[in-house]
Design a protein that fits this description.
Order of helices and strands: HEEEEHEHEHEEH
Structural class: alpha/beta
Low-confidence stretches: 1-19, 24-57
Mean pLDDT: 80
Radius of gyration: 22 Å
Largest sheet: 6 strands, mixed
């Protein structure tokens, strides 16, 4: 008589354990995505993300950080397609003081700061200052409508999946909105976490512009 062989149920089979290095790498990647892509929120967060979902963001307080020239790090690998369908790389703006603003149409503070950003842009565009927006985790249609409504006069890269934002690891945009001021060498010289104003941003731009 042939003996019966009982199969071990799949759920009962021991699963291979991940090696510590793999687990650590996974944890680090999750933390990076959480922080840089604003997918995790603290108690301050209360805004809904794109498509009305619960993709919350961390609300900044408008605090500023300036970075001494000796401590600055260059931002590399930033490129993509603008909301107008043009290819653009941040490296194309090297040689100019560049203001990079991370925004989204679903972000209420972004709507509040938009007129101030355009005011600073107009005041400095003839002085060797470039502006670049990064439309973060948004739909192209909504982002384009935002630009029309607020008469934004500078281009924005379309960052639907957050990959462009990840390139700013050295001085990350830890909130939406965040504004970075880059010096002529393409290094982050100042950061505003949260909505900014003309009286806050324009002096930061002027300070970096005055550097030799």
């Amino acid at each position: 008589m042939t003996p019966r062989i009982s199969a071990v149920p799949t759920a009962a089979r021991p699963r291979p354990r991940a090696v510590p290095a793999v687990r650590a790498a996974r944890a680090a990647a999750a933390a990076a995505l959480c922080g840089l892509l604003a997918g995790c929120a603290g108690s301050q967060a209360a805004q809904n993300g794109p498509d009305g979902g619960d993709n919350r963001f961390i609300a900044g307080d408008g605090s500023t950080q300036t970075i001494p020239a000796a401590d600055r790090k260059p931002v590399t690998g930033v490129q993509g397609e603008t909301l107008d369908g043009e290819r653009l790389a941040l490296a194309d703006l090297k040689g100019k003081v560049t203001v990079v603003n991370f925004w989204a149409s679903w972000c209420a503070p972004c709507r509040g700061e938009a007129p101030s950003l355009e005011q600073v842009h107009k005041a400095n565009k003839d002085k060797g200052v470039a502006f670049l927006g990064v439309a973060f985790k948004d739909s192209k249609q909504n982002a384009q409508a935002f630009e029309r409504k607020f008469k934004v006069g500078y281009p924005s890269l379309f960052d639907a999946d957050g990959r462009i934002t990840l390139a700013f690891r050295a001085v990350p945009p830890n909130a939406i909105p965040t504004t970075l001021v880059l010096d002529r060498q393409g290094r982050v010289a100042a950061r505003v976490i949260g909505a900014t104003t003309y009286s806050t941003l324009n002096p930061l731009v002027a300070r970096v512009l005055a550097e030799k």
